[in-house]
Amino acid sequence: MAVVLRSWIVRQRDAAAQWAALVCAAIILAGCATTQPGATTDPLPSWKEGVNKAAIIKLVQDTTRPGGPDFVPPSKRIATFDNDGTLWC
Questions:
Q1: 31 near 24, Cβ under 8 Å?
Q2: Which pTM does this prediction carry?
Q3: Cα(27)–Cα(67) distance, integer angstroms
Q4: pLDDT tens for residues 14-53?
C-alpha cells in the first residue's frame, strides 16, 4: 500500500511540475509576442527628433513610393553602409 501511494505521489508531483513548466513557457512566449506601443510607428526610434531624422525619413518615403516623382526602382538602388564613418558602396 505504501509503495502504491508513493508512486501516485511521484506521478502527481511530476504532472504538476510539467504543468507549471508549460504555464511558464506560455507566459514567456506571450510576452515575446507583444510589441511595445509605438514600436511600429517610428522607423528610427533611437534617433532624436530633428531636421536630420525628418530628412532621412522623407528621403526614404519619397524614393520608395511607386509612382512618385522621386521614385527609384529597387533594381536601381545602391545600398551604402556606414562603418565607423567610412562609406562602402
A1: no
A2: 0.46
A3: 45
A4: 777 777 777 766 777 776 665 655 555 788 888 899 999 9
